[in-house]
């Protein structure tokens, strides 16, 4: 994953302008394709940082938020049967799933910063981010799934592979 060329191309002023633009409310924009590109870059950068993190630090020791315990317990209470090792698109995108996720996510409004920002999530936790292995999710969905993967040992495969 190498996205730094995209940010470097913006320069300091461009990156600063992009950061400011991303902090404005959605109502300030129409369907501006430049904004979509900035959001995609931000999501990609977040994914790159996270993957590098689980590749270099034993995931069982990671704390992703100040409220990991609350997110994890609520997640496993709400999604007992969800296989976080190998997600399917319908686990997040079916009509039933969307409603369950909406209720789950909304409880973290005001608790998890930017809880509903767009983030990239790997479907198969043993693989890298790729077009085939990535789905768009909210930040709190990302945290819920990745905290579960870390605590349940599923991200160990990425960490071990990076050490060999």
From TrEMBL:
Residues 35-159 form the Polysaccharide biosynthesis domain. InterPro entries: PBDC1-like_dom_sf (IPR023139), PBDC1_metazoa/fungi (IPR008476), Polysacc_synth_dom (IPR021148). This is Protein pbdc1. It comes from Xenoophorus captivus.
